[in-house]
């Protein structure tokens, strides 16, 4: 990863943020952590939407050499305790994070935060996630297991986590390497088409998008690229989309809950274009 790219990226996302607390919030939100900031009290914490191991990973990130001391297998960590709010599973960072322990004014430290490429041959998909992409699970708005920040590459992590907060299941992702575009693979066509409908009816109308967001039905993939090959432009737009999604997650979650009550098994057999049109028609009615 080009270090000057990371420096420019950090400068953009922290522009006007002089206080340490605000700088921490912007940098680690961009890194993929779902954070809640109470500006009145000056406290910051992990959102309850986070994976229970995100606190452990965030704590390790206090150390610039975190890659040497934290080397768990990169496997989609699904277990029955993911969404339990019990004391034995709850990291202290879900209550309060001491941001002074993070050297966010050190450029080399920030560069290390954003250079954590995950080689594809080391990443093992958890096939248990397959069931979350089935129509019956999508239709009943079943709860999805959280995704660890640790298993996501830095520049795509925030978008994946934000999409997950909408009850949309993803299968894999990549921030893009060697000139290749970034992408997210969704867990089945229902999740991909629902996010595509949100993108077309809500996101595209709220943001001045300049990058290409292409949709491939053969493997339920969204591909993101900059028309001019400007990687910084792409990564900043991914941040804008992720921020918008997470800021409106309550609205978008409610929309999904409502549309799920209208689905029947006739929608299961619809072709992709017809189902996308159904989703878009519903959302257009909601957002008018």
Care to describe what's here?
- 43% of the residues lie in helices and 11% in strands.
- By secondary structure, it is an alpha+beta fold.
- The chain has one domain (3-287).
- The longest helix has 18 residues, at 189-206.
- The chain is globular and about 55 Å long.
Give the strand order, joined by hyphens, for the main sheet. Answer: 5-6-8-7
Low-confidence stretches: none
**Terminal-residue CA separation:** 42 Å
Roughly what is the average pLDDT, rounded to an integer? Answer: 89
Number of DSSP helices?
12
Instruction: List the secondary-structure elements in sequence, H or E.
Output: HHEEHHEHEHHEEHEEHHHH
Largest sheet: 4 strands, antiparallel
Indicate the proportion of strand residues. 5-15%
Chart the SSEs and their pairings.
Blueprint: H1 3-13, H2 20-30, E1 35-38, E2 43-46, H3 54-60, H4 66-69, E3 74-75, H5 107-113, E4 123-124, H6 135-139, H7 154-164, E5 170-174, E6 182-186, H8 189-206, E7 212-216, E8 221-225, H9 231-247, H10 249-262, H11 265-268, H12 272-287
Parallel strand pairs: 3-4
Antiparallel strand pairs: 1-2, 5-6, 6-8, 7-8
Helix pairs in contact: 1-9, 7-9, 8-12
Task: From the structure above, extract its key features.
288 residues; alpha+beta; four-stranded antiparallel sheet; two-stranded antiparallel ribbon; globular
Structure in a nutshell:
With 288 residues, this protein is of the alpha+beta class.
């Amino acid at each position: 990863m080009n270090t000057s790219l990371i420096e420019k990226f950090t400068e953009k996302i922290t522009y006007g943020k002089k206080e340490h607390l605000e700088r921490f919030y912007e940098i680690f939100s961009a890194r993929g952590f779902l954070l809640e900031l109470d500006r009145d009290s000056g406290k910051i914490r992990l959102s309850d939407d986070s994976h229970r191991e995100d606190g452990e990973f965030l704590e390790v990130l206090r150390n610039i050499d975190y890659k040497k001391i934290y080397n768990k297998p990169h496997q989609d960590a699904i277990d029955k305790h993911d969404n339990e709010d019990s004391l034995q599973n709850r990291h202290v960072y879900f209550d309060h994070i001491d941001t002074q322990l993070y050297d966010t004014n050190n450029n080399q430290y920030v560069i290390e935060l954003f250079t954590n490429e995950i080689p594809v041959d080391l990443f093992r998909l958890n096939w248990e996630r397959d069931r979350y992409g089935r129509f019956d699970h999508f239709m009943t708005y079943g709860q999805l297991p959280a995704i660890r920040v640790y298993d996501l590459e830095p520049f795509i992590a925030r978008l994946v986590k934000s999409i997950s907060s909408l009850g949309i299941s993803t299968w894999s992702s990549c921030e893009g390497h060697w000139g290749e575009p970034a992408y997210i693979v969704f867990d089945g066509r229902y999740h991909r088409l629902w996010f595509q409908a949100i993108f077309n009816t809500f996101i595209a109308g709220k943001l001045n998008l300049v990058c290409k967001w292409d949709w491939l039905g053969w493997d339920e993939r969204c591909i993101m690229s900059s028309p001019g090959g400007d990687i910084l432009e792409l990564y900043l737009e991914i941040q804008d989309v992720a921020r918008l999604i997470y800021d409106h997650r309550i609205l978008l979650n409610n929309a999904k809950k409502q549309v799920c009550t209208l689905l029947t098994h006739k929608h299961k057999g619809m072709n992709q274009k017809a189902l996308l049109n159904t989703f878009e028609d519903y959302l257009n009615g909601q957002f008018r």
